[in-house]
Amino acid sequence: MTVRTAKLEDADSLVRLLGCFHAESIYANSPLKFCKYTMMRTVLGFLKNMPETYCQVVERSGRVVGLMLADIFPVPFADAKFSRVAFLYIHPKFRGGIAAFRMIKGYVKWAKSKGVLEILGGTQSGVSPRKTISLYERSGFKEAGYTMRLEKD
Questions:
Q1: pLDDT above 70: residue 153
Q2: Angle, to 10 degrees, between the axis of helix 129-138 and the axis of helix 99-113?
Q3: What are phi and psi of 82, to 5 degrees?
Q4: In the β-sheet with 63-74, what is the strand arrangement from edge to edge?
Q5: Which end of the chain is least crowded, N or C, by CB within 10 Å?
């Protein structure tokens, strides 16, 4: 598998892959239904804003099977910036290799080049949370808190 910078031509593949992400996530059976048009706007926002965003894909035999999208945001209480991961996903058939680790290492390098104060990573989607935590820890990240969820009745 190859990790490379995403291109505008990858947008359709990224939206399809993020549809798989949604179907595997805690949101699959919630009122938050996947909307490919909204997702396309999001994906294009990331792709068109590079290098201010981080957009990597995992490719196997010419097919996009994984992705990482990240950005930078201002710290609300200080004159500083943090980076955060919006999506880190590899299709279940292609997990278990080193592609996610490579994307995270690239993300850290990119975030440092942007002068961010903190580099954030994690998961709120419910997709393989224990494995995702372990992956981030192996990449040097430390636990910084929790995300809790309360569904609307």
A1: no
A2: 60
A3: -120, 160
A4: 2-5, 54-60, 63-74, 81-90, 118-119
A5: C
- Please name the residue that has the structure tokens 């192996």: 138
Alpha-carbon gap, residue 107 to 149, rounded angstroms: 27
Residue 129 zone, left/alpha/beta (φ > 0; ψ -120 to 50; rest): alpha
Tell me the one-letter amino acid at 29: N
pTM of the predicted structure, to 2 decimals = 0.92
3-class secondary structure, 86:
strand
The β-bridge partners of 74 are 81
The predicted-structure confidence for 20-73, as pLDDT tens digits, reads as follows: 999 999 999 888 899 999 999 999 999 999 999 999 999 999 999 999 999 999
What is the rounded distance in angstroms from the CA atom of residue 139 to the CA atom of residue 99?
A: 12
d(CA 56, CA 47): 10
What's the token pair of residue 1? Answer: 């598998």
How many CB atoms within 10 Å of residue 85? 21
